[in-house]
């Protein structure tokens, strides 16, 4: 594991690929930005798999993995770049199924309603619901957390439990930062409410992803042979480090502005090291963008 201020800046993953059997790779911010895929990143994963590596995409998408696959294909993330996908939607789906027969108030766009497909979940008004599921904002192009203050006040008075199906606070959509479900859930939790966080940086999604890799490889996976790849220090890197696996941080993601690469400029190692020195969690290495 890297120690404080020592994470090296690398130019590609080829030099370290032989150290790992499994990559747990983030999706949004590493493989695509919601508008188009990143060809060098897709190519890097394809090359890793050709060398015998296994890739499990680990995403905080609030929909089960099978519903994320069509979007990946549409954006240009080809199937030969990964072996499986595990999402916070998969974790959320299990939590919903455990509450069979209860009513839910859903906060989030209509596209996320696939979370409830083939369940007996009944949606209800906030004043009548048994619990809340937050997958995002109803309109993340125009709304902020402030638009939900009244809703959160009502929910808190009713002492409703919230399932946060996407722990991300923000993501990049093109060149714009978009508020995610995690920001609403964080506001609710700050009010003293009970929030269950599905997905990164929490342990269950890593356990399930590694178990999936073990099924693919047909043998147990050693943590020292696993590396997580992601662009968010709070979720991707912290989650991996706390789980006990190595982590490669991609600079050209949600921290791009802080690291000086959001305008297309190359990552400056000194700036990366300075930024990392201020972080409580350290990656094993940092890279400008995922490439071979």
From TrEMBL:
In its keyword annotation, does this UniProt entry include Transit peptide?
no
Q: Name one Pfam family in it.
A: Hydrolase_like
List keywords of the entry alphabetically. Answer: Hydrolase
Superkingdom of source: Bacteria
**What Gene3D superfamilies does UniProt report for this protein, alphabetically?**
HAD superfamily/HAD-like
Q: InterPro entries annotated for this entry?
A: HAD-like_sf, HAD-SF_hydro_IIA, HAD-SF_hydro_IIA_hyp3, HAD_sf
Q: Which GO terms describe its molecular function?
A: hydrolase activity
Query: Which NCBIfam families does this UniProt record tie to the protein?
Result: HAD-SF-IIA, HAD-SF-IIA-hyp4
Q: What is this protein called?
A: TIGR01459 family HAD-type hydrolase
